Amino acid sequence: MTSETAAAADAVRADAASVLAAAADAAPALAAMPPRDRARALVAAAEALLAAADELVPLAMAETGLTEPRLRGEIKRTAVQLKLFAEVAAAGEFLDVRLDAADPDFVLGPRPDLRRYLVPLGPVLNFAASNFPFAFSVAGGDTASALAAGCPVVVKAHPGHPRLSDRTAEVLNTALPAGALGVVHGQDEGVAALKDERIAAASFTGSLAGGQALAAIAAARPRPIPFYGELGSLNPVIVTPDALAERASGIADGFAASVSGSAGQLCTKPGLLFVPAGLPAPEAFASVAPHRLLHQGIADGYARRRDEVLGTPGVTVVVEGGVTPDGVTPTLVETDLATLLEHRETLLQEAFGPLSIVVRYTPGEPLGEALTELVEGSLTAGVHVGAGEDSPWLHELVSALRALAGRVLFNGWPTGVAVTPAMQHGGPFPATTNPTITSVGTAAIGRFLRPVVYQDCPPSLLPEPLRDDNPWHVPQHRSPAGESSGWGSLTA
Fold first, then answer.
1. Helix, strand, coil % (nearest 5) of the chain?
2. How far is CA 229 from CA 38, 58, 205, in A?
3. 398-456 confidence digits (pLDDT tens)
4. Helix (H, G, I), strand (E, B), or coil: what is residue 281?
5. pTM for this prediction
6. pLDDT for position 3
7. Region (Disordered) spans which residues (predicted)?
8. How many degrees, rounded to 5, is the angle at CA 462 between CA 456 and CA 468?
9. Is 289 exposed, middle or buried (0-12, 13-18, 19+ CB in 10 A)?
10. What are the helix (H) ranges across 175-263?
11. pLDDT (tens digit per residue) in 265-313
């Protein structure tokens, strides 16, 4: 290592240390900030992001190869996420305040005065994703939900868009409290931050191997911390015989668009399509222009996976596609359920790129049982049904899909994750490290909070959400004295 290289490395480490220190210093003030003030800061950050779009989008195009329409849509989505969590913060329901009045006549003996609410964990480390340089990066949903919860955020920038990461943070920090958002670069710096005792939780979007390695580090700390990882997903979709008879061409076109959008670099891309007969290869598959992948590591990994799939016995090429210096074009292959079972180790791995496998099945066979055996946890699962279709077979299939996925779709495609309160973007392992959480939707804020109870606390020492005068004007669920004698009456 030259003296210049060593000096640069020292500067990176010093910068990372400064970011961690600033986050730790900011944590008490951010936790004490009234939720409506946090909401105002998030709205201001969203407006700053939109105002900088003409600068940020070209920078993102240069670093990622994604198209301008896709990135402009994504920056709008990112601003909407920030505003959604501003609404969550302002409403105050996320604090889950519960006040149990002291009750000398409680049925199990005298009950003390109990006051429970959720408090922020502290600084959160967010490992940014490569495929959403806005929505799952510096300004993304993990950042928005953590800030709304009252947690400072340290973003480990993805190496695929470093300049964009720094500039996005600069834009957001014109609106956020000092120390609330910082960025670090480098794999070693990210690991060091994950081990740092000032970090209280971590989030991650990326590969299975990378996520498992980081989760192990988080668990091995002297004081382990929560690690919320989104790791990979096959997103199986099933087409019933009735649906195929009614609209085969439309299903094929929708499938092609879902597989090839953003060059297949989406965690919700349908990697498996189960059909009762061959699906016509739509023009949309063959006519897709080459698209550059996000970075060389993804390109190399996709090329390896494509070669493995194409070299598997019993797999037939429907649309060959390819990998060229100009980018990739979609590849579609077909096989049967027996081959998928025989070569599961090869075929049932995610291909991060525009490749999908069509699997033929026999109508009426227990497909739900086969899916349960073959497919591990997934972010999504879908089924296309005919008009008015209903049968025990279909009910069993839907039950199987519910068991393996966090979101079950009907007559639609999994790409496109609505930014809305009811969204669930998570699923059983290996889709996510924790099947009870989501990284999209208002429930995402719960990842960065923990409950605390104040028992028989003098009123002057109570935090604002637990006070009877409720200065933050947050929802308070009260259990008055005397009600325990009536518990169970609702069952009558």
1. 45, 20, 35
2. 25, 29, 6
3. 999 999 999 999 999 999 999 999 999 999 999 999 999 999 999 999 999 999 999 99
4. coil
5. 0.93
6. 57
7. 465-492
8. 90
9. exposed
10. 187-195, 208-220, 241-260
11. 999 999 999 999 877 777 778 888 899 999 999 999 999 999 999 999 9
Whether 454 and 115 have beta carbons less than 8 Å apart is answered as: yes
Using DSSP's 3-state secondary structure scheme, residue 181 falls into strand
Confidence band of 14 (pLDDT split at 50, 70, 90)? confident
Is 332 in contact with 295 (CB distance < 8 Å)? Answer: no
Per DSSP, 405 falls in state: E
Sign of CA dihedral 30, 34, 35, 39: negative
**Domains in the chain, start-ordered, CATH in brackets?**
12-231+438-449 (3.40.605.10), 237-410 (3.40.309.10)
Q: Catalytic residues, which ones?
A: 230, 267
User: CA angle, corner 386, sides to 384 and 389, nearest 5?
Assistant: 110
Query: b/e per residue, 332-361, with b = 16+ CB within 10 A?
Result: bbbbbbebbeebeeebbebbbbbbbbbbbb
- The span from the CA of 427 to the CA of 437, in Å, is 8
Q: 């060959």: which residue's tokens? A: 320
pLDDT band with cut points at 50, 70 and 90 for residue 364: confident
| CA–CA gap between residue 142 and residue 161 (Å, rounded) | 18
Backbone angles phi, psi at 350, to 5 degrees: -65, 135
Which amino acid is residue 233, in one-letter code?
A: S
Most confident of 8-22, 247-261, 280-294: 247-261
| Amino acid code (one letter) for 479 | S
